Structures are given as C-alpha cells and as structure tokens.
Amino acid sequence: MGNETIQQCSGCGVKLQTDKPAELGYLPQQALERTPVICQRCFRIKNYNEAMSVTMNNDDFLRMLGRIGQEDAVVIHIVDLFDFDGSLISGLQRFVGNNPVLLVVNKIDLLPKSTNWNRLTNWVQRQAKEHGIRIVDVLLVSAKRNLGFERLLDQVGNYRGNRDVYVVGATNVGKSTLINRLINDYSDMERELTTSRYPGTTLDMVNIPLDDGKHIVDTPGIVYTHRLTELVAREDLGTLLPDKELKPKVYQLNDGQTLFFGAFARMDFVEGERQSFTCYVSNAMPIHRTKLDRADELYEQHAGDMLAPPTKERLADIPAWTKHQLRINRGSATDVFVSGLGWIRCNGKEGAIINIHVPKGVKVITRPALI
Length: 371
Known about the structure:
Elements: H1 40-48, E1 55-56, H2 58-68, E2 73-80, H3 84-87, H4 92-96, E3 101-106, H5 117-130, E4 137-140, H6 149-160, E5 164-169, H7 175-186, E6 194-196, E7 205-209, E8 215-218, E9 221-222, H8 228-231, H9 237-240, E10 249-253, E11 257-261, E12 265-271, E13 275-281, E14 287-291, H10 292-302, H11 312-315, E15 321-328, E16 334-338, E17 342-346, E18 352-359, E19 364-368
Parallel strand pairs: 1-9, 2-3, 2-5, 3-4, 5-8
Antiparallel strand pairs: 6-7, 7-8, 10-13, 11-12, 11-14, 12-18, 13-17, 15-18, 16-17, 16-19
C-alpha cells in the first residue's frame, strides 16, 4: 500500500489495504488523505448507515465465533433458503454457548406464494435440530422484497434486553441488507464506531453503536468452498443464483437417463421404476436430458459449448467432477441437495439409486423434501 505509515482503520482496527475491495480493510487509494483514516466498510456504515459485505477465512471465522460464547449476546444467524444446507453454520452451537440464536431464513420470495409457511418453518426447525443448532425462533424474510422484517425487529427487541446483537452468516446470504435494516431501526450513528479486535485474527468485527449503549456487531461473512457459487467465475453466478420465483422443471425419467445442468453438474438415474424428478434450480439454468450410456461421451465432446455455462475457458478453472451415489428410500419424500445449484425432488414411491456428478468438494446430501 502506498503510505506505509498507515496501518489500521481508526474505526474497527483492521489492517488497511487498497488492493482487494471484497476483503477486510479495503479503502480506495484517495481515501488515505481523509482524517481519520477508516476502511470503506466503516465509512459506509458511518456516513450512509450501510454495511457492506466482507469475508474472512474459516479458521479466523471459527476463532471469532468462539468469542461470542463468552459474551452475553443475541446471535442472529442468517441463511439462504435456496442454499439452506450450504449456508447453515452447522458447528454454530458449540461456539455460541447459551446465547439465544434467531435463525433468519432469507430469499423466501423464491418459493411459490402458495407455500405453506408454517410447514416451511417446521422444516427449518427440524433441519436446524439435525445440524445440532438450538434456536429460539425462525424468521422467514425476503431482503429483496422487504418481507418479514417487522417481525424480525420485534423478536430482536424481545430477546435483546441489555445485550449486544451479533449477526453471523456465510457470504452472499443477505447479511448486509439485514444489518442495514437493524442500523436504521436501532442505531444512532452520531456516535463513533468502536473497535473489536480479537487475538490471532486479521480482524473481524465492526461494532455499530445502538442508542442504549449496546452494539450491533457486524461479523465478516464466512466463505464456504463447498458451495458451487464460491467455485465458479463471477460471470456465471447469474445462471446459478435465482433472482425471481423458481419455476420447477419436472422430468419423467426411466432408469438409464441423465440430466445435465449446463456443465456445472449432472444427475444419472441409475436404477428404479419410471418416476418424476422435479428440479428446483435457477430459471436461467439450462437442463439437457440424454441417455446415461451416452453421457460421458456427450460431456467430453460438448462441455463448454452445447453444455454451458460455464464456457470451456472458465470450466478449466473449476475442480474436476467427482461422483456421489445416493439411495432414495422407497416411499420417502426426498430432496437431493447440491449446494449452490439448488435441489431435485425425487417423487417416486418405489425408491431409486442416482449418481450426482459435481466439482470436487461441492456439498451433496439427501434431505426431507422442502416442498
């Protein structure tokens, strides 16, 4: 960085840098002339009442979470409904101690308006329990459509008492939007941002003062590389990430048939009676059906052109595929979930064996059907 004497943001204490806008401590070169010198994240909170998203690695994130268990605090854990099992911090409970956890599920606007929200809430509670997270409430919201925030603010008020509020989540789950709502409703930004430095981390948190002397604590987003969205080029996120209500695509398949999702993933129906598979993926995702015995050859010849996105060039930067074999139990209502891609609802009553091919490291699980 140009001015070697400038080491730390006077707002949050982070080490300053001018190269990587998405990472902690970024500020534009010209902002070095300002007094006091503060990072862009603090500048936006202080001047515009707006948080922006920054990231930190897994080890630092877990160290930071461990500190929350030593505080008397309310924890808001925000997850992405479209990537629920990929954005949930499954080890959260062992870090936050007895502090109450509000689980905020964002992007409910992606589901049909006819969705039974009580049933969805019960599903979320069961999944959280499965991951070992004790929650005091589930709040269904849409940051994009501004839905569900009144109830969220009420519940934060109910549980906050005389406590700080920590907001935690993975990258791109809507954390900044949530914090901005909290700032607007609770914070008096005339007061200074405060430093929150923890040993062993590059840095971590911005404490946003509330009007009662407590703080909203904005934690950086954790980067989970098991999410397909973290592995692909920025240009391909528009195909993966839905921006409007999902239009489920239903395929009646015989065993020995395959579905390609662009060149991001592939599903083989290996064994079972003829049955339907409902794909809940972004409306922009191209799906190509073929015979299983032709699938390898088709991929070899057409990945990156007929099977796209990503393009051949961008495909080269993604890990090679690995195969997951899954057994769908007879009579079960089951989703095959692929983190960052969406999920496939298996509708057969007879059970099935399927293979999922995805870039190595991407999370693939079966779960009770969401819809």
